[in-house]
Amino acid sequence: NETIKTIKLKNIIIKIIIGDITIEKTDAIVNAANSTLQHGGGVAKIISDKGNLQKESDQYIKEKGKIRTGEVGVTSAGDLPSKYVIHAVGPIWYGGSKDEAEYLYMAIFNSLKRAEELQLNSIAFPAISAGIFGYPIEKAVKQYKKAVDNFDNQNPEHIKEIKWIIYDKKFIDHFLKEF
Length: 179
Ligand code: AR6
Fold this sequence. Notes:
By secondary structure, the protein is α/β, with parallel strands linked by helices. It is built from 5 helices and 7 strands; from the N terminus they run βββααββαβαβα. Helix 3 (about 100-115) crosses helix 4. Helix 4 links the parallel strand 6 and strand 7 (about 160-165). The protein binds ligand AR6. Ligand AR6 binds near residues 20, 33, 43, 132 and 165.
C-alpha cells in the first residue's frame, strides 16, 4: 500500500493511502458492512473471506441483533493482521432525502468512538457507502472529513492515526481535495 498524503490535525495524523485494507497493520480496520453482517460483496466479502469472519459475524448478530444504520459492531480480526474489525453500517444512497449524510457521518464517528473506547491507537477505513450502497464519493468525503475533524476536536486519548484506504483510484482526487 502506498501513502500519498499525510495530514496533521490537532491530535491525530491522517494518512491517505492507495491499496487494499486487508493488508493494513492497524489496531482496527473498519468494514463497510450491512445491518445483518452478511458479507456478500464488496470490501466486506474480501475482509470476511480473508479474515474468515462470517461465522463470528453470524454469532454476533445472533447474540446482539441487527446493527442499525449509522451504528457499529465489533468482532475480532480473525486471520487478518489487525486486532479488531469494526463493522460500520453506512447508509444506502437514495438521492439525499433520507438523512444519508447524517447516517454516514454517524457510521464514521461511531467507528472512531468505539476504537477509542477499545483504547486503540490506529484505525483504517475504506470508502464506506461509496460502492454497492451508491453514495456519491464527492459527497461522502465531506462526511468523512467532518467526522474526523469533530473526533479530533474531542481530544481523544488513544487514537493517534486514521488511515483512509482508497481502492478505487478514481476516488483519489476527491480525497485529496477534501483532506
Ligand atoms: N480495500 C479497501 N477498499 C476496498 C477493497 C479493499 N480490499 N475492496 C473494495 N473496496 P462496498 P458499501 C472499496 O461496496 O458501498 C457489501 O455487500 C470499494 O472500491 O464494499 O458500503 C456489504 O455486505 C468502494 O470504494 O461498500 C454491504 O451489503 C468501498 O470499498 C454493502 O456491500 C466501499 O464499497 C456495503 O456497501
